[in-house]
Amino acid sequence: MTISIDDADGTARAIGNDLVSATFNTSRGVQDVTGLDKSAMERLLLLNDFNLSVTAVWNPAANPSMFGVFSTPADDDTRTVTIVVGGKTLTAECLMSGVSWSRPSDGSFGATATFELANGTAAAWT
Fold it and tell me: Rounded to whole angstroms, how far apart are CA atoms 124 and 108?
């Protein structure tokens, strides 16, 4: 699997080498429309959504890719997220909604970042 995310300047950065985990979700909203005359649930599918959570470790290279992506969140900063799995590509325009930096007692340094769908266009596999 490869993951690329734009940095604050809009440059796609392949950050897979710095990631130790990634979880993404392509969910849909669901509305309960069960009438009182039913004995089982009825539901309608609603809008698409997407979110991505990644955990990265510090890469001491001269221009570490994860630091370039995570270190500069800006207001209304849309990032293109591209995930490639088995020759299939998922692309979504996202906001980086949060970054948590950590440095535990073992001396390691890392970050967890969350990206959420930004612009009303569903994430799409190609």
Answer: 35
Burial class from Cβ neighbours inside 10 Å (0-12, 13-18, 19+) for residue 76 reads: exposed
Measured distance CA(39)–CA(26) in Å, rounded: 30
pLDDT, tens only, 9-23: 888 999 988 899 999
CA distance 113 to 108: 17
Task: Give me 110's structure tokens.
Answer: 């890392």
- The pLDDT value recorded for residue 3 is 95
pTM here is: 0.86
Class level of CATH domain 2-125: mainly beta
Q: Phi/psi zone of residue 87: left (φ > 0), alpha (ψ -120 to 50 degrees), beta?
A: left
